[in-house]
Design brief:
The complex is a heterodimer. Chain A has helices at about 20-30, 40-50, 65-75, 95-100, 115-130, 160-170, 180-190, 200-210, and strands at about 10-15, 35-40, 55-60, 85, 105-110, 135-140, 140-145, 150, 155, 175-180, 220, 225-230. By secondary structure, chain A is an alpha/beta fold. In chain A, the strands form three sheets. Chain A has a five-stranded parallel β-sheet with strand order 2-1-3-4-5, with helices on both faces. Chain A has a four-stranded antiparallel β-sheet with strand order 6-7-8-9, with helices on one face. In chain A, a hairpin with a 2-residue loop joins strand 8 (about 150) and strand 9 (about 155). The longest helix of chain A is centred in the middle third of the chain and has 16 residues, at about 115-130. Chain A is elongated, with a radius of gyration of 19 Å. By secondary structure, chain B is an alpha+beta fold. Chain B contains nine helices and 13 strands. Chain B has helices at about 10-65, 65-75, 165-215, 235-265, 265-280, 285-320, 330-350, 365-385, 440-450, and strands spanning about 85-90, 95, 105-115, 145-155, 160-165, 325-330, 350-355, 360-365, 390-400, 400-405, 455-460, 465-470, 500. In chain B, the strands form three sheets. In chain B, strands 2-1-5-4-3 form a five-stranded antiparallel β-sheet. In chain B, a hairpin with a 2-residue loop joins strand 9 (about 390-400) and strand 10. Classes of the chains: A alpha/beta, B alpha+beta. The interface of A and B includes residues 91, 161 and 188 of A.
Chain lengths: ~230, ~500
């Protein structure tokens, strides 16, 4: 159901900085994700076209061919592999421009390895998921995406619209870590670092609504990374 | 320094073109006048020829050739006569008239007579090119005479030619041609004079613009082109260049500010970080202590990175173009979203967050930045108002302007410090201990400026209230947003693009 795919995940990393590349490769290997590395745009494009990858991590500033035009070529050629930009390019409109060119996520350097891992996991899972689901289920929690209703063991739980979106995102990624900034971006459209504990406050409200008795916890805090929805508490 | 070259290529070419145009139009006028005059005079000549020929022919009809001869003699007897007549017999013998015998030919044509001698000289040799015979008679006209006339045959075969001297016509033509020459000459002179005067004035203005631009290139960024209060193109150009220079000055100032900020304000936390690491190296060693130090160092690094990107973001906003990322943003809806997002945070801080929003309306803006602006203000209130405070977001539209207010009942900001809070890295002394890097309000100010809004802090007694004034302007034709006449809007500066459309029908 929502368990991670069994076959090992292969991710293509197009990155010209060798140090960053080995840092990522080592970090991902520890999580059982295999990284193939291309050091410039031309090699990256060739690999992306030929190989079978579940996701591509793409730098924007590359020798040979910049990331943006690489992705455009790739998309024109019909490749639909999810792409995450990992870049220091962080102007006002760069994120929008990058996503419009066919990217699926945008992470700005300097980055935090668990953040990158969580985002790649989410991207891979999104493709694995059926696109036209109307109901989500994890443990005894069920979400009706059409009626925007949540039930726990058949009993309805009243949620605010933002709480529903928060829960939906957590359940979609059940079993994997979602980071604070992933939640901020997907649930509240916030692309900056808030100075208050927005995520924490909402999570604690959602927790108390999901399990008033606090018997089993659905949303686990992963220290230093983010949160995880536990499918089988 | 700049020396004005009065007739450089550009001006000379323009002036020459202008002069040629002037001359051409004068020439056209003159040719028309000439043509009309010539035609009129020819017609007059023909009428007079016709009348004389008629008289002679009617004499012939009533009493025969001798009567015709008599009429011709009568006609030629008039002194200072311009008419020329010839009646000659069938064998070519001249019967009467003041022209020499010539080959008979009917129809309208011109003949050239020999230069005329004394009046009434019957024995002048006719024919073009013949020189006057030196008979000692006084020469009255030196030139060849051109006679326009009509030849016809009388019923008995004798030949009649009646003509008029064209001397008057030729003289008039000459006069007209002469005046055309004068007119064109005068026109060209006037055009040259006008060109000199106009281009001198023009060049003076151009020189002023060039001088200013050179001064700016040389580093004197405060120089501006003098603008006269007219709406002429050159003034508009000058005003536009001045605006451009203002913009450049703003960008430079922003750049300078950012460099200063980074130099001064990133140094402090970096120094602190270094001190901590040094202390850890020198101090007592243990795995637990090291872990703590590393933890703190990572936190410090995150703080420094956050401050760095915040400073960078502010300068990006300050140097940003307005249009590329602008779209229709429903302000009350965005405020509602902000409130929903932060209400639990306020609640956790024992505060209340309430909203009082008007019907939906849209402005042109950068949605992400406006969300960040409202979020920063609300977060600021949450962080500084203290527990028990009431935070209130309200929004209303009146008189072509929307007012968004975000107020709290906290300790407020002293009146003297209210202007300073929008500067970079400003923090009230008492809030040094609370988290935050002091760039939040500077970011808000940058976003406000990018959108051409205005912002003011007022005393909420108790607490502080942030007022954001959003001018509602009608959108231009062809804009992707619906245009609504926002009555009572101030015309404002023309450089400010319109930034609002009312969303009619959304509130229904």
């Amino acid at each position: 159901m929502l368990a991670p795919p069994m076959s090992p995940i292969k991710v293509l990393l197009v990155e010209d900085d060798a140090e960053t590349a080995s840092y990522i490769a080592n970090g991902f290997a520890a999580q059982g994700i295999h990284i193939e590395h291309a050091a410039d745009g031309v090699a990256g494009l060739a690999r992306a076209r030929s190989g079978h990858y579940q996701a591509i991590i793409l730098d924007r500033l590359l020798p040979g061919c910049d990331g943006l035009s690489l992705l455009r070529k790739l998309r024109r050629a019909g490749t639909t592999t999810p792409v995450l930009y990992l870049t220091a390019v962080d102007g006002l409109h760069d994120r929008v421009e990058g996503l419009e060119a066919g990217g699926d996520d945008y992470l700005v350097k300097p980055f935090f390895l668990p953040e990158l891992l969580a985002r790649i996991n989410a991207l891979v899972r999104r493709v694995a998921d059926a696109q036209t689901q109307t109901r989500l289920r994890a443990a005894d929690i069920e979400l009706d995406l059409v009626q925007r209703q949540v039930t726990r063991s058949g009993r309805e739980i009243a949620l605010m619209p933002q709480e529903f979106r928060l829960l939906e995102y957590l359940v979609r990624n059940a079993g994997s870590v979602v980071t604070r900034s992933m939640l901020l971006e997907h649930v509240w459209e916030i692309h900056f670092d808030p100075q208050t504990s927005v995520v924490e406050s909402h999570i604690s409200r959602l927790r108390s609504k999901l399990s008033p008795g606090a018997t089993g916890e659905y949303i686990r805090t992963v220290r230093g990374s983010g949160y995880m929805f536990i499918a089988y508490p | 320094m700049l020396t004005p070259r009065r007739f450089d290529n550009e001006t000379a070419r323009l002036s020459a073109l202008l002069i040629a145009l002037f001359a051409l139009s004068a020439l056209l006028l003159a040719v028309t006048v000439y043509w009309i005059a010539d035609r009129g005079m020819r017609a007059e000549l023909r009428d007079s020829i016709g009348a004389d020929a008629g008289a002679i022919a009617s004499g012939y009809r009533s009493e025969g050739l001798s009567e015709a001869m008599e009429v011709v003699q009568q006609l030629t007897a008039v002194p200072a006569l311009s008419g020329r007549y010839l009646l000659q017999a069938r064998d070519g013998r001249k019967l009467a008239g003041n022209l020499a015998a010539m080959p008979a030919r009917s129809g309208l044509f011109q003949v050239m007579t020999a230069p005329e001698l004394t009046a009434g000289s019957d024995h002048v040799q006719a024919g073009a090119g013949t020189r006057p015979s030196a008979t000692g008679t006084r020469v009255v006209a030196r030139r060849h005479q051109v006679v326009l006339g009509e030849g016809s045959f009388l019923p008995d075969g004798s030949y009649l030619f009646v003509g008029e001297q064209m001397e008057r016509l030729v003289r008039t033509r000459t006069r007209i041609l002469l005046s055309i020459g004068w007119i064109i000459g005068a026109t060209v002179l006037l055009a040259i004079a006008g060109g000199v005067i106009l281009s001198a004035a023009f060049l003076r203005r151009i020189d002023a613009i060039t001088r200013t631009c050179r001064a700016v290139v040389a580093g004197r960024f405060e120089e501006r082109i003098p603008v006269h209060s007219s709406q002429a193109q050159l003034d508009r150009l000058s005003a536009t260049i001045n605006e451009m220079l203002d913009r450049i000055a703003t960008l430079l100032e922003s750049l300078r500010q950012v460099s200063t900020d980074i130099a001064h304000d990133l140094r402090t936390p970096l120094t602190r970080l270094r001190q901590r690491l040094e202390a850890a190296r020198a101090g007592p060693v243990g795995a637990h202590q090291y872990e703590q130090v590393v933890e703190r160092a990572l936190e410090d690094c995150d703080g420094i990175l956050a401050l760095f990107s915040a400073l960078l973001r502010i300068s990006q906003i300050e140097s940003s173009m307005r249009w590329p990322n602008f779209s229709r943003v429903d302000v009350p809806a965005l405020l509602h979203q902000t409130a929903e997002c932060f209400a639990p945070v306020a609640e956790d801080a024992q505060q209340t967050l309430t909203t009082d929003l008007c019907a939906p309306f849209a402005v042109l803006g950068d949605r992400a930045l406006l969300l960040q602006m409202f979020s920063n203000l609300v977060e600021n209130a949450i962080r500084h108002a203290g527990s028990g405070a009431a935070i209130r977001i309200d929004c209303r539209v009146s008189g072509g302007e929307a007012l968004v207010r975000i107020g709290d009942t906290g300790p407020g900001i002293p009146a003297g410090e209210r202007d300073k809070v929008f500067g970079r890295l400003y923090r009230l002394e008492r809030s040094r201990s609370t988290p935050g890097n002091g760039v939040g309000l500077a970011l808000v100010a940058a976003i406000v400026k990018l959108h051409h809004y205005s912002i003011a802090l007022t005393d909420a007694e108790p607490g502080v209230c942030v007022n954001i004034y959003i001018p509602l302007r009608a959108l231009p034709e062809g804009s992707p947003l619906r245009t609504v006449d926002a009555a009572g809007t101030s015309p404002g500066s023309t450089a400010v693009p319109p930034a609002i459309a009312m969303l009619d029908g959304i509130g229904e």
